Amino acid sequence: MAETARNFVGSYFEEDRLTTVQYPEERLPQKEAARNFPFLVYDGQDWQKGLRCVACQICEKECPPKCIYIIKDTIKKPDYIGKLQFQPKVFDIDVSVCMSCQICVEVCPFEAIKMDVEYELSTHDRFGQLLLHKDELAKSNEYYSKIHPTESSEVDARLAVEKAKAGAKAKADAETKAKAAQKVAEVDISK
Questions:
Q1: Which of 11, 61, 133, 136 has its CA 20 to 30 A from that of 47?
Q2: Could you tell me if 50 and 43 are in contact, meaning their C-beta atoms sit under 8 angstroms apart?
Q3: Do residues 70 and 60 touch, judged by C-beta distance below 8 A?
């Protein structure tokens, strides 16, 4: 009984035991593992060119409530570093249906979709404003690093290693082609 009384009285006076937060004036900081609804990550300054999503539609197929809708663009467009790749023409998520299961994040091979911590999404138009389009879903890699710093640093390190491997492979392929072209030229000259 004494322990209960001490906790009860202490909850009114001791700062670390106060349980009530005067929301919305006071807000508790979100934990790093918090998740609410998905968003699309982009690199660089321009969200249209920097989207990591290549419209592979894996997240759309794996989504249990089927709240993701993707239409793949038919033309390859340059991304933020100039590499041609497919991008989604339409990428919509209906957050009124989304159950925040994070399956879309887990199945994405391009680290393009992540979970946000924003939870204040109330609106007067339930069906119109809770259907988020590509431009509303796109958030920068810097934003992602701010809300999930540990996970973001791991993802960025892994992507940097993959990019370096791809660059080394492209360089080796270019050297091989150059040597083959040189041999063909030498053969032509000797004839």
A1: 61
A2: yes
A3: yes
Total domains present in the chain:
1
Which tokens belong to 64?
A: 């249990």
**Tell me, what's the pLDDT at 190?**
66
Q: How does strand 113-115 pair with strand 38-42? A: antiparallel
pLDDT of residue 116: 93
Structure confidence at residue 191 (pLDDT): 62
Residues lower than pLDDT 50 in the chain: none
Instruction: Retrieve residue 103's tokens.
Output: 């399956």
Question: What is the rounded distance in angstroms from the CA atom of residue 75 to the CA atom of residue 86?
Answer: 7
pLDDT above 70 covers a percentage of the chain that reads 97
Report if residue 97 sits inside a domain: yes
- 11's CB contacts (< 8 A; 6+ apart) are 17, 18, 19
31 lies in some domain: no
Q: Which domain does 77 fall in, by range? A: 38-167
Question: What is the distance, to the nearest Å, from the Cα of residue 164 to the centroid of all Cα atoms in its chain?
Answer: 21
- Triad 94, 100, 101: Cα angle to 5°: 125
Q: pTM to 2 decimals?
A: 0.78
